[in-house]
Amino acid sequence: MPEPLPVWIGKDEHGGIPRPARVDLRPTPSWRLEAVVATERPRSPAVSADGSSVVFIQDRDTSDLWLLDIDGGPPLRLTTGRDPQPYWEDTQPVFSRDGTQVAYADDGWVYVVPTSGGPPRKVVEAGSPAWIGSDRLVVSIERDRCDRLAVVTVAEAWPQRLARKHVDLETHGDEQGAIVSPDGSTVAYSFVPHSDYSRSEVRVADVVDGKVRALTGAPGIRDYVLDWSPNGTTLAVASESSGWFELHLFAVDGSEARQLTTAEADFVEARWHPDGTRLVATRGRAGRFDLVTVAVADGIVTDIAAGGVFGAPAWTADGRIIASYESPTEPPELRIISEGGEPVAIHSPAPLSISRAPHVVAHELTYTTFDGREIQAFLYRPATASTEHPAPAVVYPHGGPADCYGGEWDGHAQYFVDKGYAWFAINYRGSTGHGSDFERANHGVWGVDDTKDCLAAADYLRTVDWVDGDRLGIFGSSYGSYLALLAVTDDPDHRFRCAICKYGDCDALTTWAQADRAGGQMQMRIMGHPSANREDYIAASPVHRLDAVTAPILVAHGHTDRRVPFEQSTELVAELSRLGKTYEYVTYPTEGHGFLRVGPQLDFYRRLEGFLDWYLL
């Protein structure tokens, strides 16, 4: 009898000729997959009101909360058993004003845990908590397929809707990102009307009477509230009205509104200094997020530390800055920085085999795609590649599509480069970090023009003398998986020898119907409603054209995925099987949108390794 599968594997199937394992390969010189998947990620730091402590989330087989005294000492684990969460979707934990409790969201509920130790307490079925003082919370509750903000008392959590008096404001939409004023009287938040998913406006609501006013709002423009000034009179807002998410300041009484920065960059995080003279912020451009301060008086931006990727900056009691950090050569950690000083790591949990491994620095470049547009990309060259011995290469389109590649640590890429593969990470049209026009360049042509950017990446690699242009694969996760499938479906020149589809779509119409609400809304923001754009949805659905596929495909999906439903891979594999195509198919019952646990993640990347080793032989 065959050996039983590990408990984290559901289906393990193939179509066509089974792929043998390579018997001639030796381990990579410096990297091991076991170490990559064991690397922990500290993230989402939040500083207590007195500036002395930080709470953060650390990902590995769980996404538990940890406490750290800024003056020194080891981090202390605050929670246990919180299921691993994708860092790109999880919400930040928050201290109560008196610092005695931390509120956080988990599995559809808001919990409160004492910072002195003790078990967490389930408060209310909701998400995204923000404190009003130390005894009440603003939380997000879904009602009628809309996100609604509500106020609850921690001791007796009966939700009361926050925004109750809208006068003539539109009400059918999502209330998100609540930020409470310093005196606790007012809540600022972003409102996304369901009549225009490309619009987000800043509103403020009175906590006592529920009266709502809109401070911003324009068709097709997204504005997000970031922070209150210490005196409670002004809001810092990220607005894309200029074509980038620049910092703007809005007086709550409506007496002033001004654009603070003109940096042609995205300021998506900002926290006001207690003296009110400046903000600490992350400045994002072309995949990197620098740490900066911005003067309130004149908008002068001062560089504090260059990214990599800095995230969630906040002020300490003595005027230093704490933030998460990672770079292409430095795994995730927490750093503390003095204005004018050098960053210092205060928590670096990566194994020594990772932190001291030789990292390859990618060559940043642009290549020209089919319509003359320049596409930013990062090309990793293995040490063994030469004109005499050109390397096989993997094109890697990121997920999103509204995301980017550039400043992050990518241990998986480093492993495959160490193994001898060139790695080509591309920021196709639709990526962030290049302004709103570039991000919206895939609107209405989802899966069509961005696929051509992937094919142009293969054409570029064929011009590189140390790359073997006949041994190209394409691999992606989520939207990147979808592009990988399209690249071997809608390409009569068959540029790629193989494709790897990790929890991706195959049918734009059925995924719109199956996905969670956030996924469906994102799709409609880019493509419109399918009832009015059916032909665009069909053009964006490779499942209808799989007869053109000649490359073998590795398909992997988690059973609990709600963003890109598990049924998408079921539909894809059924059609591949009907057509007699060569494929491998593996599923993971414990995993959602992201293979986050060690067992499934290690299993998948070992399969990916064997797949590339065979088909790019």
In words, what does this structure look like?
The protein is α+β, with helices and mostly antiparallel strands and 617 residues long. The protein has a domain at 12-37 and 381-615: Rossmann fold, CATH 3.40.50. Helix content is 16%, strand content 37%. It contains eleven helices and 37 strands. The strands form eight sheets. It has a nine-stranded mixed sheet with strand order 1-37-36-35-34-32-33-31-30, sandwiched between helices. Helix 5 (449-461) crosses helix 6 and helix 7 packs antiparallel against helix 8. The mean pLDDT is 95.
List the keywords.
617 residues, alpha+beta, Rossmann fold, nine-stranded mixed sheet, 11 helices
CATH superfamily of the domain at 12-37 and 381-615: Alpha/Beta hydrolase fold, catalytic domain
- The structural class is alpha+beta
The spatial strand order of the largest sheet comes to 1-37-36-35-34-32-33-31-30
Average pLDDT metric: 95
Separation of the first and last Cα atoms:
32 Å
Biggest sheet, open or closed, and with what strands and sense? 9 strands, mixed
